[in-house]
Design brief:
The chain has 137 residues and is of the alpha+beta class. The chain has helices spanning 20-27, 30-39, 46-52, 58-70, 92-121, 125-135, and strands at 2-4, 9-11, 44-45, 74-79, 85-90. The protein has a single domain (2-135), classed as Winged helix-like DNA-binding domain superfamily/Winged helix DNA-binding domain (Arc Repressor Mutant, subunit A), CATH 1.10.10.10. The chain has six helices and five strands. Strand 1 and strand 2 form a beta hairpin. Helix 2 crosses helix 5 (92-121) and helix 5 (92-121) packs across helix 6.
Length: 137
């Protein structure tokens, strides 16, 4: 349970109807995670983000950016040019979140072999295939 002393609010993520569940829903999305960590590198345009985040559809990238802007994690700047140019960058709130997400990214990359080994041992064919491919390198 966390109490915000300046506002007097108390939040407990373990309570079903707590508003903090909205924030957890936001953080649990794969595209949110990848977009925030990609923007940690600095201001980017939509096309740059699309190239950086392999597999994201244009529609999903637009929805993700809109949601992040709505939640105050990303700022959107439209430049009066022809053709119009739009840049996205993390806000201070987004930067703070990106720092935490970087740690999760590092942990994930460091522990991929262990997770794949456990999954493969439990019969996961994709994990077995990825381990075999990694061993062939």
């Amino acid at each position: 349970m966390v109490t915000n002393a300046t506002e007097g609010y108390t939040f407990d993520v373990f309570k079903r109807h707590c508003a903090s569940h909205m924030v957890l829903d936001l953080l649990s999305g794969k595209w949110t995670y990848l977009t925030v960590t990609a923007l940690r590198q600095g201001r980017m345009r939509n096309a740059e983000l699309a190239r950086k985040i392999e597999g994201i559809s244009p529609k999903m990238l637009s929805q993700t950016l809109r949601g992040l802007e709505h939640d105050g994690l990303v700022s959107r700047t439209v430049h009066a040019e022809v053709p119009p140019r739009v840049d996205y960058e993390l806000t201070a709130l987004g930067e703070e979140l990106a720092g935490l997400m970087d740690q999760i990214c590092i942990w994930a990359q460091n522990h991929v072999p262990e997770i794949l080994t456990h999954r493969a041992a439990n019969g996961d064919p994709e994990a077995q295939e990825r381990l075999a491919a990694a061993g062939a390198r």
